[in-house]
Amino acid sequence: MAFAPLEVQRGVNSLVKGRKKTENWREAENPVRYSYMKLLRERDETRRIYDVDPFVEVYTLRPGIYGIYAESLDGMGDSWIFLIDGPEKALLIDTAWGLGDLKGLVKELIGEKPCFVANTHSHQDHAYGNYQFDRVYCHEYEVWKLEAAMNPHVWDKLFDEKGEGIWYDFRREDLIPYKPYEIVGVPDGYTFDLGGGHEVELKFLPGHSTGHCGFLDKKNRIFFPGDDCCVGAIGVGGGAPGTPYAAYGTVEALYQELKKITARVGEFDALFPSHGPVETGPVMLFSALEACEAVLKDPSAYDMKQDSPRGVRYGKMIFESGYLFYNSRSVYMDREAEIR
User: Counting beta carbons within 10 angstroms of the beta carbon of residue 331, is it exposed (0 to 12), middle (13 to 18) or buried (19 or more)?
Assistant: First the structure.
């Protein structure tokens, strides 16, 4: 699976208010992902842009399932926010960057119905919109990361010395003002009751981040795996040495939890990842599991090697998808890997 060079990066026609500065873009495009997103974003008949939040595209992916597509502000991958509209309550999965009135958009879509807000993980492209809400749920191992990021300067790195967006053309006043919120950490298996027997279960799925999780919508038979099963790449390296729960930012931790969720494959028919193509098949989980197993068996049998700002990382091919990226510290839970 190849990636297009940055200098030949191509855009997608969209009517959102912002604009990518592709000349500064940092992430090379996966051609499979690009083709899918181009068709979806330019031709899907359910796509709408609402006046209350003109920075995102809204898709009706299933009855009562909205995909809210947010372009990246830092030159990396665009992200999905998912809204599950239940009989009595709703669940918002992730909040992206906080650009535009996401809270107002949710109200536009579901009315006055109460809405849980939950994060797959704490990374900026998934959780910087949290400041628009009063309470946000996450896996208990991710609480400390959200607490560490709670300050009014989280967006400063997106602007140059002139106050202009480095990777995206937008203004500071388009960001909803910072406001502290309550963080509720919950354990693996915690259930969000949306009423009428509609339950969504939080499933611990570490690796990309130490407290990363997915969500199993039992009624709609959809598993939302966050960043741990995306077409293009899965990055494992979320546990910096000396930080809490560092052992869970590893391929080994991801492998253990993938075994558990694949054992429940009879409970869902589709995956809705947080980046790239949505409604992929459960086979993606098995492909990721296979790649993890190969890395654990021999970390030196990588398919690519590259330098990154955080040091050398290695890529193991995921069947018909992309690469599982890892480094020497993010393979095993209890020791550093020897990689030749």
Answer: buried
Helices 251-262, 283-297: axis angle to 10 degrees equals 140
Record the pTM: 0.96
For each of the domains in the chain, give its residue range(s) and CATH number, in order of start: 6-326 (3.60.15.10)
Q: Where are the beta strands (DSSP E) in 145-245?
A: 168-169, 182-186, 191-193, 199-204, 213-217, 222-224, 233-235
Q: pLDDT of 161-188, one tens digit each?
A: 999 999 999 999 999 999 999 999 999 9
Distant-in-sequence, close-in-space partners of 206: CB < 8 Å, separation ≥ 6: 141, 212, 238, 245, 248, 249, 250, 253, 254, 257
User: What is the distance between the alpha carbons of residues 209 and 331, in angstroms, rounded to a whole number?
Assistant: 13
Pure H helices in the chain = 31-43, 102-110, 124-127, 143-148, 251-262, 283-297
**What tokens does 233 get?**
């790449």
Residue 244 in 3-state DSSP? coil
Largest CA distance in the chain: 57
Q: Encode burial over 265-286: b for 16+ CB neighbours within 10 A, e otherwise.
A: eeebebbbbbbbbbebebebbe
Average pLDDT of the chain, as a whole number: 94
321 SS3 class: coil
